[in-house]
Amino acid sequence: xxxxxxxxxxxxxxxxxxxxxxxxxxxxxxxxxxxxxxxxxxxxxxxxxxxxxxxxxxxxxxxxxxxxxxxxxxxxxxxxxxxxxxxxxxxxxxxxxxxxxxxxxxxxxxxxxxxxxxxxxxxxxxxxxxxxxxxxxxxxxxxxxxxxxxxxxxxxxxxxxxxxxxxxxxxxxxxxxxxxxxxxxxxxxxxxxxxxxxxxxxxxxxxxxxxxxxxxxxxxxxxxxxxx
Length: 228
Prior knowledge:
Blueprint: H1 2-63, H2 68-96, H3 109-131, H4 133-140, H5 144-159, H6 165-177, H7 192-216
């Protein structure tokens, strides 16, 4: 009888030890996964900031194209591609069940790419809209589905914890510019004054160049009157 008790106790102890070992291994694996996920998230944030700087440089190059027509053509092409990416990425994220601000950083590469596409392209359109408001409103109003996608992507981006402070401010300004949220009493597009100043400078340069050309025109030789 005593031997049976000893064997039973040994078996219970062995089982408990095995369970404890399995639990420790599972916790260790979970810790490793969380550590890898946290590292990937930090890398994502750093790359996002870098990507945003590159995008802003690209928008600044749009501003010096020189004519409204050229700017409109470029913006139209960019926006068409941009919303195509937003739409396809939205499908991926919604089918994955990812919820911004709630879900943990995705481990699936396809979902991460879709997440980056949404956050980057939403901010890019925001830059274009604020720097070239007249053209952007005109392009955006040409397709109702673009307005629907943009409203969704702005909400998604605003809920995300992966964007930097400057981008969060940008999203707020874009939402007010589009009247998707109530405008603050003192709201103003911070780039509109820069745009007006740039246009004024262009007109002044154009006027100066025009005056110079007129001065450079030389009169041809005149026939002198010869009295017979």
